[in-house]
Amino acid sequence: MKENVLEIKNLHVQFPIHIGTVRAVEDVSLNLRKGEVMGLVGESGCGKSTLGFSILRLLRPPGKITAGEINYHGRNIGNMSQKELLDLRGRNISMIFQDPLTSLDPLYTIGDQFLETLRTHEKGIKKKIALERAVDMLKNLGISPNRLYEYPHQMSGGMRQRIMIGIGLILNPDLLIADEPTTALDVIVEAQFLDLLNELREKFDLTIMFITHNLGVVAQASDRITVMYGGRMVETGTAEDVFADPKHPYTQGLLASVPNIKLEQTELQTMPGAPPDLVNPPPGCVFHPRCPHVMDICKQEVPKSFRANGHMRACWLYK
Ligand code: SF4
Q: Which residue among 287, 290, 297, 300 has the greatest number of ligand 1 atoms within 8 angstroms of its CB, and so is best to mutate?
């Protein structure tokens, strides 16, 4: 089995606010093996982006990790100094976001933004060398080197997203966290982006955590899938297993609510109810108010994780 690039053990993340404490991530444990793409899926507010920010120790105040640990190649990120964390972000782990316009600086050319990243992490790097590396990266992205002298607003959304990835990979990290990277793209550009990501994964030997609410995207892009609900991991397995045989009622509901391209469905199914209030989550299984299979035990005890053939589900149905 390949080595773990990332190991998350029993992670809890909370946001103390004036009306109580938001339990954004509750007891999450997962591994990313070298070279794999892990799709992290769930509805908005389920804790998936908070998990991504926790990995880089970039939680916005008042968010904090209250328990558990995160190891990158066996090193506990919680014990790293500020200097080590600065190195970790960019050199080792890179994160890209949904909207490149909010991450790219509109006042600087694309070339300047590559230079800024390189100079922050590689003090004293010569401008000529830095520009050569930026040009090489643009070629990997299928973008003409002339674009280095343009500003973000002169590019299409798809091209800006590719530039974001290029800046994210210029320091050769081995772990990429992509947070809803295709949400702002139309379906054609989205498909091109996913192809490019796959190419870059091979070329740069990347391990990828792909955070999205879009099951169609995750099906194309991922080797393994982790489904989150109400801050908890409810199911994880290979993409094939989870799509062919979803075990958790929430995953089953999510898949049933995706339009079927073969038009075998006459009606789109919806899940009743709303995501839980994470300040006052329901007792027991956090999904129980919406679950069609709810039992007495579900209202009292948080379900344990049950595994079969590497496919995990946290649900009392599998006790
Ligand atoms: Fe439904 Fe109970 Fe399973 Fe929760 S533990 S998903 S309420 S059957």
A: 287
CA distance 107 to 25: 36
CB 15 within 8 A of CB 201: no
The CA 39 to ligand 1 mean position distance, Å, reads: 22
- By alpha-carbon position, which residue is closest to atom 7 of ligand 1? 288
CA 27 / ligand 1 centre spacing (Å) = 17
| Cα–Cα dist 108/143, whole Å | 18
Mutate to test the pocket of ligand 1, among 228, 317, 319 (most ligand atoms within 8 A of CB): 317
Give me the amino acid identity at 149.
Answer: Y
Q: Quote the DSSP letter at residue 246.
A: -
Q: pLDDT (tens digit, 9 = 90+) per residue, 29-40?
A: 999 999 999 999
Average pLDDT over residues 4-28: 97
Q: SS3 sequence, 19-58?
A: CEEEEEEEEEEEEEECCCEEEEECCCCCCHHHHHHHHCCC
Residues 6+ apart with CB under 8 A from 61: none
pTM: 0.93
Is 294 near ligand 1, meaning CB less than 6 Å away? Answer: yes
- Check if the beta carbon of residue 6 is closer than 8 Å to that of residue 207: yes
Place of tokens 């994964």: 201
Q: What is the pLDDT of residues 104-125, one digit of tens each?
A: 999 999 999 999 999 999 989 9
Q: What is the pLDDT of residues 198-244, one digit of tens each?
A: 999 999 999 999 999 888 888 888 999 999 999 999 999 999 999 99
Give yes or no for residue 210 CB within 6 A of ligand 1.
no
Task: Tally the C-alpha atoms within 13 A of residue 197's C-alpha that lie toward its C-beta.
Answer: 30
